[in-house]
Structure formats: C-alpha cells, structure tokens
Specification:
Layout: E1 27-30, H1 56-68, E2 75-80, H2 90-104, E3 109-116, H3 123-131, E4 135-139, H4 144-150, H5 160-172, E5 178-183, H6 191-199, E6 205-210, H7 227-244, E7 250-251, H8 252-262, H9 270-274, E8 285-288, E9 293-296, E10 315-316, H10 322-327, H11 329-348, H12 352-355, H13 360-367, H14 376-405
Parallel strand pairs: 1-2, 1-8, 2-3, 3-4, 4-5, 5-6, 6-7
Antiparallel strand pairs: 8-9, 9-10
C-alpha cells in the first residue's frame, strides 16, 4: 500500500529533506502552452513565443501522479496558467477536462481555474466556463492610461479595450471573476484612479502585484529606494479609499493582513507557521510544464534555467512518481535551501507569522539564493500593507476608546 507523502515525513534523515511536507495538494498547475498572444514588458516567462501544447496523455499522467501520491482529498484544484491558456481552443479543454474526469473516476470533486490576459473571451468561452463552473481571473492593470503602458500586443498596440470587451462578455453571462493588477512606478501616484477603476469593474477581489524581479524580468521600476515612500503612500491611499466607501470587492493584500491580525499565529512554532505558506511546502503546489516536467514550491520557477537545480525539473510525469522525486538530489538540494531560508526568516523577521517565510522564487531571483531572507517583494507586498492595516486597526481602537470615555 502506498502511504501519503506526509506520513513518510518522519523517515527523513539529515542528508535528505529536513522540513515539513504537505499533507494535501493545494494546486495542480498545468501549463497547456507556454505561448502568449501579447507581450507585456514585465513578463517573467522566457519561452512565451513557443507554440507547443501539452498532450492529453501528459494531462492524464499529471493527475495520476498526484492521485497515486495520496495528496488529493475531497477536491482536486487544477489551474491552467503560465502562458495564455485561452489561446488554445474550447475543444482542447473539452477533451482535457474529459481526460481528467476519466482518470479521477469519481474519487474526488474537480475544480478548474484559468488565469487569462482577457483578450480572447467570447460567447463560446463563456458558455464553456459556465458549463464547468470554472473560475477565471483576468490580468488588468487598471485604467487604460496605465494598463496600456505595459500590456501591449506583439505588434506594440494597446490591449485595454479588448480586455474590457471580455469583461462585458463575462458580465453578460453572469460569470464572476477576480483580477490581478501589476503596479509599476507609473501607477504609484494614481491610487484614486486605480481604486475607482476596480470599484466600477464588478469584481469579487483584486490583488495588486507590486512589480517584481522574476525570471527574465531582471529589472523593476520599483527597485529604487526612492519608491519605498511612494509605495507606502499608494497602499495607504488605497486603504483609506476602501475604508471610506462601501466597496463590492476585496483587496487581497488587505484581506490577508487583516486575517493575520485577527487570527495571529505568533505563538505557533516556526514549523507550524511555515505549514501555512503553500510556496515553501514541497508538493502543496505542483507545477507541470507543457512537456510534462514537474516542479514544486513557487510556480514562477518553472522554465528557469539553472544547472545547479536541474533547471527546476525535478521529474517527469509518466516516468517519475513523487516518491522518486522526493528522494532525488535536485529536490533535496532545493527543498533544504528553501527551508533553511524559512528558518532564517523565523529568527530575524518580525513579519514571519504573517507570511511564513515568503516566496522562494522572490528570494532566488532577488537574492540569488533560497537560503536568504527579506526581499523587495517582502517589503512592498507584505510588510507595507501590513503596516497600513495595523495603523488602521489602531485608529479604530482609539475611536472606540474615546467613545467609551465619553
């Protein structure tokens, strides 16, 4: 009988991986194609001009791999990402979804999600999304004057109008969606315009990704020290606007920061806190590229070339199971470096109970090592929003105290 990976964790010895192991799979990320039909200037993907497609057999083997490892509970969550998934036809996904259902054979519920640039959504796509109750997220950087600075077609033309047509299609079909916005230095002085845009968009939640250093995107407009105060003011203004309105949407960073305050993990051990960070747990997130290569930890590592880690290709579906991958040298080297970095964060960072050790990909791309601590991403996307939310909570408590005194 094959035991779930988490039950084998106690068998690790010093020369092997020494940290906690996921007891379940949070996300299976499948890259149906690395190709993207637009050319964002901050994209981290190196192979977005490659037009190859993941085969149905690779899809089947990916699902078999996680089922056989005992990582799937009541639900298998499949995310189609890393490239523009909607460049492939609805017919492709009809076959792909059917192939997954065939392998699962009723053992669990299946949920599907797409992260899209929002250029290609039409009535056929909307009908497919509704039929399968799939979730969809759109990448939109706010109003056109900001979005079109960086999100252009391959011939350099703006894309905002096309995305907004897709938004209208989703609304016509009553399909809820969320959004991810990349915030560059160009947007920092336009918090009001950004907030008002998303307030009127009809979304459930927006996440603001402060421009990062990842993959082939090795230069960020946020790298200059002078931007720190501007970023803090951007977050503060967003928070003030959100608090002063009756918003129909959540801001991801404030939601997470508020949850960290209300449900503090500060008294937990560092291992227990790390267990809440999907990116530092082996096999909590599993990524499979279009050729069937398997990776784990941060999805952004997929496609990165580094011989020290075997290009982050830890195995291949149909050839290696997760038990073999767990025992391999590339995995052990990577996993131990990631967990050593988490330990350092637990000893040195007052925000550790909030993030559980940060993102391995950010440490790797910014610091050159998983075994490191604070990054620009930490400061801009975790610490600054947390500071803003804490100040907001403190101000509310002062108001309550003043009212009690009166």
């Amino acid at each position: 009988m094959i035991l779930p990976l988490a039950r084998l964790a106690n068998s690790f010895v010093s020369e092997k991986y020494r940290g906690p192991v996921a007891s379940y799979l949070e996300l299976l990320i499948l890259q149906p194609t690395p190709f993207c039909n637009i050319n964002c200037d901050y994209c981290y993907l190196s192979n977005r001009s490659v037009r190859q497609t993941m085969s149905l057999e690779t899809i089947r083997e990916s699902v078999r791999m996680v089922l056989n490892a005992g990582l799937v509970g009541e639900r298998l969550s499949v995310v189609w990402h890393a490239g523009e998934p909607l460049v492939l036809s609805v017919d492709y996904y009809q076959e792909a979804f059917a192939a997954i259902e065939e392998v699962v054979d009723g053992k669990c519920e299946i949920s599907h999600s797409f992260q899209s640039n929002g250029i290609l959504i039409d009535d056929d796509w909307c009908a497919f999304i509704r039929k399968h109750s799939a979730r969809i997220g759109l990448s939109i950087d706010g109003p056109a004057f900001l979005h079109d600075l960086h999100r252009k077609t391959r011939t350099g033309k703006p894309t905002h109008a096309k995305v907004m047509r897709s938004v209208e299609k989703l609304k016509q079909h009553s399909i809820p969606f969320h959004a991810i916005a990349v915030i560059t230095a160009d947007a920092l002085d336009h918090a009001d315009a950004v907030f008002n845009f998303f307030q009127n968009l009809g979304i459930a939640e927006v996440g603001f990704n402060i421009e990062e250093l990842e993959g082939v995107h090795d230069s960020s407009s946020m790298s200059a020290e002078v931007n720190t105060d501007r970023i803090r003011k951007f977050w503060q203004r967003l928070y003030n606007l959100h608090e002063a309105s009756l918003p129909s949407f959540q801001i991801r960073e404030f939601r997470k920061a508020a949850a960290a305050v209300l449900f503090s993990q500060a008294r937990l051990s560092w291992q227990e806190i790390a267990m809440q960070n999907d990116q530092v747990l082996p096999f909590r997130i599993i990524s499979v590229d279009y050729q069937g290569h398997v990776s784990t930890f941060s999805p952004e590592l997929m496609g990165v070339h580094d011989t020290a880690y075997n290009d982050f290709k830890l195995g291949k579906v149909g050839e290696d199971d997760l038990y073999a991958i767990r025992e391999s040298k590339p995995f052990r080297k990577m996993a131990n470096a990631v967990m050593d970095g988490v330990r350092k964060c637990s000893r040195t960072c007052e925000y550790f109970s909030v993030c559980g050790g940060g993102g391995p990909s950010n440490k790797y791309f910014e610091n050159g090592s998983f075994n490191s601590t604070v990054t620009m991403y930490c400061r801009n996307s975790i610490q600054l929003p947390m500071q803003v939310v804490l100040t907001g909570f403190e101000n509310k408590l002062r108001i309550i105290d003043s009212a009690d005194i009166e």
